[in-house]
Design goal:
By secondary structure, the protein is an all-beta fold. The protein has a single domain, classed as Macroglobulin (MG2) domain (Immunoglobulin-like, Sandwich). It has no helices and nine strands. The protein has strands spanning about 1-15, 20-25, 30, 35-50, 60-65, 70-80, 85-100, 100-110, 115-125. The strands form two sheets. The protein has a five-stranded mixed sheet, with no helix packed on it. It has a four-stranded antiparallel sheet with strand order 2-1-4-7, with no helix packed on it. A hairpin with a 2-residue loop joins strand 8 and strand 9 (about 115-125). The radius of gyration is 19 Å and the shape is flat. The termini are far apart.
Length: about 140
């Protein structure tokens, strides 16, 4: 099996009727003016495809999060193909710490073989970025 899409985002919505998935606010960079930083919530998504020789329906995978190469979280994840060629897994992570600027890595593996990996940069910025999005004017009716 292999992951054909692996991504992290601020949110994922799975439609009950159609089973379609909407992934929004993809994490490429996480900016902070101070450290340590607590990332309140994020999601890991992996779309996994069977390969020749994958006979089982269910597999126990390993999900790992590392910061600058040091493991900070490991969690078992069970997937089930249910007689289909592809399946997905969605992992919600709440309260992820980033002690300093660096590299976050999210990896999914099976028996030591990496299926998919996603990287996000944690970046230190000098000052908060403030933008006024409305000018306070209202339209006359």
């Amino acid at each position: 099996m292999k992951s054909i899409l692996t991504i992290c985002s601020e949110g994922i919505v799975q439609d009950r009727r159609s089973n379609n998935v909407t992934i929004y606010n993809i994490l490429e960079e996480i900016r902070s003016v101070g450290f340590p930083l607590l990332i309140p919530r994020l999601f890991f998504y992996s779309w996994i495809m069977r390969e020749n020789g994958d006979k089982e329906e269910a597999y126990d995978l390993l999900f790992e999060i590392s910061f600058d190469g040091k493991g900070i979280l490991t969690q078992g994840v069970r997937i089930n193909f249910r007689k289909k060629p592809r399946t997905r897994t969605i992992v919600e992570i709440g309260g992820l710490p980033a002690p300093k600027a660096g590299n976050l890595s999210f990896k999914l593996s099976y028996k030591g073989k990496k299926l998919g990996e996603y990287f996000a940069l944690v970046i230190a910025v000098d000052e908060p970025n403030i933008k006024v999005l409305s000018d306070g004017k209202t339209k006359k009716q």
